[in-house]
Amino acid sequence: MRYAIAATLAVVAGLVVANMLGVAGAEAPTTSTTVPVRTISVEGVATVPITQGANRATATAAYREGMAAALADGQSKAEFLASKAGVTLSSVQSIAEGGGSISCSGGEESEYVEYTGEQPDFGSTDESVSPIEAAAAPRTTVVRKPAAKRRKKHPTAKKASAAGCTLSTQVSLAYAIS
After folding, report:
1. Domain assignments of the chain as residue spans, ordered by start
2. Has this prediction a pTM greater than 0.85?
3. Which fold has domain 39-120+134-147+162-177?
4. pLDDT (tens digit per residue) in 120-167
């Protein structure tokens, strides 16, 4: 009987020790041999023409054209930087829409003209506004009025001209390098 109790206690003690070692092994710090990915980050920018009273579909098409041009601009900048740094440009690690704006000017005197068309979805650049508030709020475009030009002493007939509007956009890119 003594041998049976001693054997049982020995087995129980062995299981407790094995359990402790298993938990300790699972909690042991792991070593990582992964090397952080080196990147080049750039801002691609572009401007495209847009009609002064564009509807939503036309404005969205212009905005997407602008984003594509900004993406190409960013890629060109990243390739230039990589060549100057003596590294090879690899895959895109991240792309972030940077928003945009629309500005208009009229004729040769660069007078201020308000954009009267519909706005494309520029995305939200104001993080303090919730998505619901941003969707409900009317979108505005800030346009600076150029300085007034001096008039000529002899007035001439003003040339008729339509407002010229441009949509500006930007895209942030990060490329892996090797």
Report:
1. 39-120+134-147+162-177
2. no
3. Translation Initiation Factor IF3 (3.30.110)
4. 988 754 444 434 344 444 443 334 444 445 555 544 444 445 668 999
